[in-house]
Amino acid sequence: MSVFGWIIIHQHLDSTFDWKLPWADYRNGFGSLNFNSDTYWLGLEIVHLLTSSQPYRLRVEVQKASSELWYSAEYWSVQVGDETNDKYQLDVSGYSGDAGNQFVVELGMMFTTVDSDNDLADNGYNCAVNKGGGWWYNSCYISMLTGPGTHHEWSGDLISSRMMIKPQ
Ligand SMILES: [Ca+2]
Questions:
Q1: Domain spans of the chain?
Q2: 76 Cα: distance to centroid of ligand 1 (angstroms)
Q3: Please, which residues bridge with residue 6 across strands?
Q4: Which one of 18, 36, 46, 118 has the fewest beta carbons within 10 angstroms of its own beta carbon?
Q5: Domain 2-167 has CATH 3.10.20.30
Q6: How much of the chain, in percent, has pLDDT values that exceed 90?
């Protein structure tokens, strides 16, 4: 589904949803964008294919718990690497917006899920097991939009979030 050319790749409107899903689900996607569905993840494989076929922008929208207001962060460039060599590594640049640039420690990180530990936390520590759902964890995160309750963050706790991409 797209809105004004933006393809929604992530939607988190239900604080009770359990995002601790395996690698295959984050690769292939889950949820839907029906009117009664609050949870959606398009899938890393298609995001990889799209962002390697031509230049894409990324828009992140977050609703903060403290004010209940929505804020946005846009990146002029976004690319998600492939599965085999890059573990869907995240690359973004060209921030603008009023939500703050929180993709700082996650930049260049590979994707980690409960069953695929590619984060930089050592000693067998898996950020997806201990923090939230699948994400581009470092050790572990500043932003993470796949967690329940207070583990759903973008510079402060969130009620809701969305991510979307659009060709440049
Ligand atoms: Ca680890």
A1: 2-167
A2: 30
A3: 3
A4: 36
A5: no
A6: 76
